[in-house]
């Protein structure tokens, strides 16, 4: 799966003011609503929080993949956020998440989110890939890293 085909540069965010998971979900949902990817930011936030209650989506080395299937999603979308370390978003290795790929999937999609999760997880196993994303400063850099 080509991750870069689902991630548009306008859905890449660099925001050092985000310090909580709540702020992350709110800011990313606002971005996706503004860009026409979802119809209702509050609904997406509720669905993301519901998914987080099952198990945290923080994976490792400061990366998280929050995701939700939701009726408010217009089309499958990936958003990326680079933030400060988020104090209440802890990955499996006890690092604080600072890079997040948010997956917003329409509720009537079959297993698309599993394909995306699988593809992203494989890429994130590569330390060089993770380091490049952490050092990226622009939307263009992120897109280049994802398309390599």
Automatic annotation (TrEMBL):
Question: Matching InterPro entries, A to Z?
Answer: PTrfase/Anion_transptr, PTS_EIIA_type-2_dom, PTS_IIA_fruc, PTS_SugarTrans_NitroReg
Location in the cell reads: Cytoplasm
- Chief localisation class: cytoplasm
Q: What span is annotated as the signal peptide, if there is one?
A: none
- Presence of the UniProt keyword Iron in the record: no
Q: Matching SUPFAM superfamilies, A to Z?
A: Phoshotransferase/anion transport protein
Xref: PROSITE patterns: PTS_EIIA_TYPE_2
**Gene3D superfamilies, from UniProt?**
Mannitol-specific EII, Chain A
Q: What is this protein called?
A: PTS sugar transporter subunit IIA
- Please report the organism this UniProt entry assigns to the protein: Metabacillus sediminilitoris
């Amino acid at each position: 799966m080509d991750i870069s085909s689902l991630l548009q540069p306008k859905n890449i965010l660099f925001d050092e003011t985000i310090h909580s998971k709540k702020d992350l979900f709110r800011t990313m949902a606002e971005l996706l609503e503004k860009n026409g990817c979802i119809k209702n930011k509050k609904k997406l936030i509720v669905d993301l929080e519901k998914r987080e209650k099952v198990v945290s989506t923080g994976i490792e080395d400061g990366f998280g993949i929050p995701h939700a299937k939701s009726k408010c999603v217009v089309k499958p979308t990936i958003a990326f956020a680079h933030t400060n370390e988020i104090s209440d978003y802890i990955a499996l290795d006890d690092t604080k998440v600072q890079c997040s790929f948010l997956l917003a999937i329409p509720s009537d999609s079959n297993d698309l989110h599993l394909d995306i999760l699988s593809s992203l997880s494989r890429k994130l196993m590569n330390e060089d890939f993770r380091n490049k994303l952490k050092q990226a400063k622009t939307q263009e850099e992120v897109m280049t890293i994802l398309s390599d």
